[in-house]
Amino acid sequence: MKEFLKRKNIVFSAKRYGIDALGAMAQGLFCSLLIGTIVKTLGQQLGLQFLVDVGNYCAAMSGPAMALAIGYALQTPPLVLFSLATVGYAANALGSVTLDGRPAAGGPLAVLFIAVIAAECGKAVSKETKVDILVTPLVTILAGVGLSALTASAIGTAATAIGEVVKQATVLQPFWMGIFVSVVIGVALTLPISSAAICAGIGLTGLAGGAAVAGCCAQMVGFAVLSFRENRWGGLVSQGLGTSMLQMGNIVRNPRIWIPATLASAITGPIATCVFNFQMNDPAGGVASGMGTCGMVGPIGVYAGWVNDVATGAKAAITGMDWLAMALICFILPAVLTWLIGIPCRKLGWIREGDLKLD
Fold first, then answer.
1. Average pLDDT of adjacent 10-residue blocks, the chain of 359 residues
2. Largest CA-CA distance found in the chain, in angstroms, rounded
3. Domain map of the chain by residue range?
4. How do residues 11-28 score in pLDDT, each as one tens digit?
5. What is the pTM of this model?
6. Measuring CA to CA, how many Å separate 161 from each of 103, 111, 149, 166, 178?
7. Helix/strand/coil (H, E, C) string of the chain?
8. What is the pLDDT of residue 40?
9. 338-to-69, 180, 256, 345 alpha-carbon distances in Å
10. At what angle do helices 132-147 and 78-95 cross, to 10 degrees?
11. Cβ contacts of residue 121 below 8 Å, gap of 6+?
12. Residue 175's Cα: distance from chain center in Å?
């Protein structure tokens, strides 16, 4: 069995499924639903129906995009990879409704679990018969669609329940949950896992989504500013608009360099929830909550949420206070707080010269 699994490149590991597949799923979601939301919002603001149509097409393809990305991360053969498009569509569609028929946020989570199993089933039978062109797609699709019919709705229900608990807890305890959500999602952003996939999986929006945005921005902008003396403008852009994950190697060597950005997220989180009532209501369902300033997706998602709230009547208008909150939570406070907290950390020798240097 070990030889068979090795020959088929089937590896049962937390890294393969919890990091590689999860991260790839987030990229697939980014390249479909999230990009579609941005383009659609732009089209609505400019009155360009073509961009609105493009956004709708992107959103419709989010399930296949996520499944194909997962298959790519799992290094599936071509016939398995292409068959996962159908699996992703089915899992996302069926996972987007609860057992009682209500809309759910669990589509991405259903795609993750089901696409992984379908991909490994397809890999197991790939090139094992003389009619591989029939067997491999059939096994992959039947396994994936069958699992979708049996489990996707339940996964959607569970994901929605978890998301609702977090969101309701944040409304009831905005201070403590503001700290908790901001720190946890911010740390997940910097770790080699996907904070965007986590937020999308449970549909983390509303006040909790705003706290998540605060935490992610604190990590990205914080590390960009804290390491400016070592990495200059290139590091400022690559971390501030790219990802704070670039510092992961340095964090392993000296975990104390993580203190300033993490403490900054613990401060900006409750400021977002208690002071500004800062919310993330992007129509993409929460994926932008876990993106921070990566490609400016977090702020754009907040803006898209404002536009959607105004269109649905949930919000009267976009105000100057909204823009002030975004500027403070996403950019100014993370930069200032991380820099200030970093000063005593450097004086105490917790952060030494070169500890934040990127290769």
1. 91 89 86 85 88 92 95 96 97 86 78 96 94 96 97 90 90 95 93 81 91 96 95 92 88 94 97 96 82 89 91 91 96 97 96 90
2. 69
3. 11-163, 173-347
4. 999 889 988 898 888 889
5. 0.81
6. 12, 17, 20, 9, 19
7. CHHHHHHCCCCCCHHHHHHHHHHHHHHHHHHHHHHHHHHHHHHHHHCCHHHHHHHHHHHHCHHHHHHHHHHHHCCCCHHHHHHHHHHHHHHHHHHCECCCCCECCCHHHHHHHHHHHHHHHHHHHCCCCCCHHHHHHHHHHHHHHHHHHHHHHHHHHHHHHHHHHHHHHHHHCHHHHHHHHHHHHHHHHHCCCCHHHHHHHHCCCHHHHHHHHHHHHHHHHHHHHHCHHHHHHHHHHHHHHHCHHHHHHHHHHCHHHHHHHHHHHHHHHHHHHHHCCCCECCCCCCHHHHCCCHHHHHHHHHHHHHHHHHHHCCCCCCCHHHHHHHHHHHHHHHHHHHHHHHHHHHHCCCCCCCCCCCC
8. 86
9. 35, 18, 13, 10
10. 20
11. 139, 140, 143
12. 23
Rg (CA), the chain: 21
Q: Are 66 and 232 in contact (CB under 8 A)?
A: no
Percentage, residues of the chain above pLDDT 90: 67
pLDDT digits (tens, 9 = 90+) for 220-269: 999 999 999 999 999 999 999 888 888 988 998 999 999 999 999 999 99
**Residue 289 contacts residue 205 (beta carbons within 8 Å):** yes
Tokens representing 141? 């699709």
The amino acid that residue 83 corresponds to is S
Rounded to whole angstroms, the Cα distance separating 239 from 219 reads 9
